[in-house]
Amino acid sequence: MHRAHTAFSLALSPMAHKNFATWLLNSSSSQKLIKASAASAVRTYNSAAAEPFANGSTASYVEEMYNAWLRDPSSVHTSWDAYFRSNSYVSPPNLAPVQANTLPLTAFNFGGAVSAAPDSKTIDDHLAVQAIIRSYQSRGHLASDLDPLGILTREKTVCKDGLARRANEDVLRQHSGFLFGEQDMERQFKLPSTTFIGGDEASLPLKEILNRLENVYCNKIGVEFMFINSLEQCNWIRKRFETPGVLSFSPEEKRLILARLTRATGFEAFLAKKYSSEKRFGLEGCEIMIPALKEIIDVSTELGVESVIMGMPHRGRLNTLANVCRKPLNQIFTQFAGLEAADDGSGDVKYHLGTYIERLNRVTNKNIRLAVVANPSHLEAVDPVVQGKTRAEQFYRGDQEGKKVMSILIHGDAAFCGQGVVYETMHLSDLPDYTTHGTIHVVANNQIGFTTDPRFSRSSPYCTDVARVVNAPIFHVNADDPEAVMHVCKVAAEWRATFHKDCVIDLVGYRRNGHNEIDEPMFTQPLMYQKIRKHKNCLDLYADKLIAEGTVTAEEVKSVAAKYENICEEAFALAKTETHVKYKDWLDSPWSGFFEGKDPLKVAPTGVKEETLIHIGNRFSSPPPNAAEFVIHKGLMRVLAARKAMVDEKVADWALGEAMAFGSLLKEGIHVRLSGQDVERGTFSHRHHVLHHQLVDKATYNSLQHMYPDQAPYSVSNSSLSEYAVLGFEHGYSMTNPNALVLWEAQFGDFCNTAQAIIDQFISSGQSKWVRQSGLVMLLPHGMEGMGPEHSSCRVERFLQMSSDDPDYFPPESDEFAIRQLHDINWIVANCTTPANLFHILRRQIALPFRKPLILCTPKSLLRHPEAKSPFSDMSEGSEFQRIIPDRGPAGDNASNVKKVVFCTGRVYYDLTKTRAEKQLEKDIAIVRVEQVSPFPFDLIKEQANLYKNAELVWAQEEHKNQGCWTYVQPRFLTALNHSRDISQSDEQSTFSNTTNTNQESDTDSDSNSDKKSKPWLSRMFASDKTDTVTTGSGTVTGEFNAAKHFDLKNVRHDFNRPAGIAAAPGVRIAKTGRKISYAGRACGASTATGSKAQHIRELNALLNDAIST
Ligand SMILES: Cc1ncc(C[n+]2csc(CCOP(=O)(O)OP(=O)(O)O)c2C)c(N)n1
Ligand SMILES: [Mg+2]
């Protein structure tokens, strides 16, 4: 479309005719010439015709003819007709501007008089040369010398002039056989405007043209860029690679490369020497990545970048931390010493924890902040998280164009092409609310993934092909050529600074060792590894080169290496004096000032003044101030009017409750960002935060952005159709600043499982693994409403299974019960039934003195349910979030006579109350809503059970028995009802992980049994002393094991205050008779729902009859 449009407008241009007339038609033999050139073109060439060769107007003319022919074949000369019919013509992506070095064609001697028109051979030959230039530009990379091992390198072939060249048929296609005579090699050819190989020369001998093209495109760099649709960008790249002399480096620059390479190589060698039996996922074979990253950072800093956020996998991570981030070496070496942690964290340091460093860049003399984001083993999962964090940092700095903050993503070759999240992340790169204004992707391409060869791990020619979809240029480079690598990095950094678009550097190296250092690669890649064994490392190769050319001496090389080894030795000695690992040293996004001076157990009030609610309500229900000009859809006028009526009545529905929460937070200076598929309107058409002018394209109004003049920014963004990348992105965004409410909404809760890796590896466990908090809210529409098996359930059972509160442990009751629970758990899972509770729970995310992710099941039918409304009084000052909502009707008033209490959560409450009313059982059956399911409100459940002393207790849920909340609530009910199991547990994780603790003791026990250390429960299983008591911060542990000896005391919490005296042998339950909770609902099921509405209703009726009966 775009190309057709360009061509069409050119065809209409009177200038095109004028240019045409001046150089060709004025000639007396013009018609003959057209015929001759067109005919010969048909015979010999195709894309040559797409390039201007004689002056800038030729291509315009050809293009013009082509378009005229497309419209009407008879409108052009028969020779053109024949030419175009042969399908030989390929329209250029765009037309090139006339370049400064173009010469009139008459400047060339065509064998006749100077003023004579060019003969057809001259034109043919020029077209051929042009085609060859273009071939090199488009496909030269296919023959470039990228593989340091030479396994994939193509042989050179000897050309007519006796010179060996690499470009072959893959590159030159039909032009490879073009037989220039040897005498042609010396012939002068005019260079088209689309090449820069000439420098200041407007023409060159053919031989020189070929040599220069070979050198640029078929040497150690393979540039893939001709698929880019922008001519400006293509020319920009051509210029940076083709201009003569671009690859020359000063002696100082070469020494710097050598020094950096020495450090990168020395670091791995040092670790190999000191920790020979440890895995470190070394970078050997691709050590150049370290100088490469440094070059990118240097150039970017020079161009204005102040903060770089990096995401990377295992390979070379330690080297990057040491030599790019300059994290103190002793801190890194400490990780190998197997020391105990002084604070929380999973011991997952070496390859997974992040870091954050602020330092002076010595090359540019500018301050720079470098962060490496903590990442799980799940390859590439960190990509969108990095992007979200980068975007957030840009946002908070007001860096709207990404000039100050940038991201670098480092990939393995197998993961880059194999993991779908890479594609999803790439697709965020140019979206207005998700772009980070250009990411530099660096692939540490060691041509292997664990034990799998590329031919079995990808169908694409390169591991980088995914980047082509966003028109990112791809710079392949031989990792054994440091200068070529540095050049590519410089270009990449300049590209990002110029166009603010992604680009890829493919560092083609090899992996000297196995996947890790104790792995045997010869099992699976014997021939490759025979080659590798004989291959000199990059540092030695480069040092040899610099010594040979006289840039450095052999002594200098040795002394640089020795100096670095000394540095390592000193750090090694220092590391030996360390007694503990401090996880807090490894935070990638410290929230300085957030925790300080805060009472960790105090929640700020969440209710707000009624006048605030009225103000927000009025704004939210009003059309834009210029309503007369802004035409709103009639349906939306009705929505606004209904909202206004609610505000006048001082009640809120779901959308209004949410808007009240957002608006009031914005008023308090809290940035709110809501992202997900179709969130602006809301999947269920209830939200309507963005009003669209019905007559003016892209004119919109968002009232939440105009609540108060000094409010914080509100952003609501329809996302790409991705869960994995977008949820990861929002998680990254939420990590950056605790004073923001970041929400991701699934279209239906069911779809969140395509983002499972983000949920499992980051959201549920980020704090326990990496000491990193996030207050991200996941809004998950959930409800079995007969919408089919894929539009029903957010699989709340899965979230609950990952909740870290202990089902068997009733924490001590106190005024701080609720906040302590929140403090200690990994995340919050809730299903609210009222807009007021939604309002409070969202505001509570910010009111908490710490941050926890909130998994919120949200309603569908309740959005419009006439009873699912809240009076303003439930949101105003003094009101707060209700963890459970007791029965406030006749049953609640006369509790001792109640026969049955039905506990439930979520929308089924409304079905239950309706059925109870229909059966006139309001006095006999109480219905209690559990609004916050996890952490479990043990105290309130106990209170309710005590209130209804004589009643049977039932848990009713619309999800199947093996789904929903039942399996989570059942054991907790038993604990709340004091019919708990004994306190022994054989898995420590459920109690202790995922907690933030400021009051713990540390274990100095240096038991070397690592299995016991990592699994304290195992020690306890076989402990003999069962009566030890351990006193901790504020509580007492009485257990059946010798805690001081076997138990990892660092994990003992001040809140670890188990009821005493109920010790028993591990695994033995203390059975007590008494009250139980029974289940009312559907049987177990394999699917989340039945497909038909009718069946759903039948099943629901059965559930209601079961639950509401006495
Ligand atoms: C999502 C995921 N799947 C599988 C693995 C297991 N794994 C770890 S490293 C690796 C090979 C990675 O190859 P590549 O991306 O080329 O990186 P390299 O190790 O070669 O640097 C695999 C399969 C993983 N970590 N993550
Ligand atoms: Mg690899």
UniProtKB/TrEMBL annotation:
GO cellular component: a single term: mitochondrial matrix
Cellular localisation: Mitochondrion
NCBIfam families: 2oxo_dh_E1 (TIGR00239), PRK09404.1 (NF006914), PRK12270.1 (NF008907)
SMART domains the UniProt entry points to: Transket_pyr
Coiled coil stretches, renumbered: none
InterPro entries the record matches: 2-oxogl_dehyd_N, 2oxoglutarate_DH_E1, DH_E1, KGD_C_sf, ODO-1/KGD_C, THDP-binding, Transketolase-like_Pyr-bd
Function text: The 2-oxoglutarate dehydrogenase complex catalyzes the overall conversion of 2-oxoglutarate to succinyl-CoA and CO(2). It contains multiple copies of three enzymatic components: 2-oxoglutarate dehydrogenase (E1), dihydrolipoamide succinyltransferase (E2) and lipoamide dehydrogenase (E3).
All residue ranges annotated as the Transketolase-like pyrimidine-binding domain in the record: 652-865
One of the GO BP terms on file: glycolytic process
Gene that specifies this protein: Dmoj\GI13269
PANTHER family in alphabetical order: 2-OXOADIPATE DEHYDROGENASE COMPLEX COMPONENT E1, 2-OXOGLUTARATE DEHYDROGENASE
Cofactor dependency: thiamine diphosphate; Mg(2+)
Name this protein carries in UniProt: 2-oxoglutarate dehydrogenase, mitochondrial
Region annotation Disordered: where it falls in the sequence: 984-1018
Keywords: Glycolysis, Magnesium, Metal-binding, Mitochondrion, Oxidoreductase, Thiamine pyrophosphate, Transit peptide
Gene3D superfamilies for the chain: 3.40.50.12470, 3.40.50.970, Multifunctional 2-oxoglutarate metabolism enzyme, C-terminal domain (3.40.50.11610), TPP helical domain (1.10.287.1150)
Keyword Transit peptide appears in the UniProt entry: yes
Recorded family membership: Belongs to the alpha-ketoglutarate dehydrogenase family.
GO MF annotation: an example: oxoglutarate dehydrogenase (succinyl-transferring) activity
EC number: 1.2.4.2
SUPFAM superfamilies per the UniProt record, alphabetical: Thiamin diphosphate-binding fold (THDP-binding) (SSF52518)
